[in-house]
Specification:
Radius of gyration: 23 Å
Number of strands: 0
Structural class: mainly alpha
Order of helices and strands: HHHHHH
Distance between the termini: 72 Å
Helix content: over 70%
Strand content: under 5%
């Protein structure tokens, strides 16, 4: 049994209360902006090109930076599917590695779609490495 009594929270000054309210409103505004961006990405996904995926990722980044619940869900999904979310984790860093992630995505798509003889990006990388050596 604990003998420590918890005291009710002391009244805060008006400035602190205003700052707390502003922080909450800002967080909810950013979460709303993230949801709008994700919905826009879903809307443009059927258009030709990869336009929807980067937009959705940006929206998810904004949501995850402002929602603890979204971070927990992301971590759970990441533990269940680490290879799928590794590129997204690299894009969520403070200094994202955009070009390496883009290049690895191209190589993965080639592996899924094209036969070994028709993989142009893999062959291009090999020629580049031979020219550098």
């Amino acid at each position: 049994m604990s003998l420590v009594l918890t005291m009710p929270r002391a009244f805060t000054s008006a400035d602190e209360a205003a700052r707390i309210l502003l922080a909450r409103v800002t967080r909810w505004a950013f979460m709303g902006l993230g949801v709008v961006i994700v919905l826009a990405g879903i809307a443009i996904a059927p258009l030709p090109g990869p336009g929807g995926i980067p937009v959705i990722v940006v929206g998810l980044m904004i949501i995850m930076r402002n929602s603890f619940w979204a971070k927990r869900q992301f971590v759970r999904f990441q533990k269940a599917h680490p290879k799928t979310l590794f590129p997204i984790r690299r894009l969520l860093r403070r200094e994202p590695e955009v070009l390496p992630v883009f290049w690895q995505s191209i190589l993965r798509m080639e592996r899924v779609v094209l036969s070994k003889e028709r993989r142009f990006a893999r062959n291009l990388r090999r020629r580049f490495r031979k020219a550098r050596a």
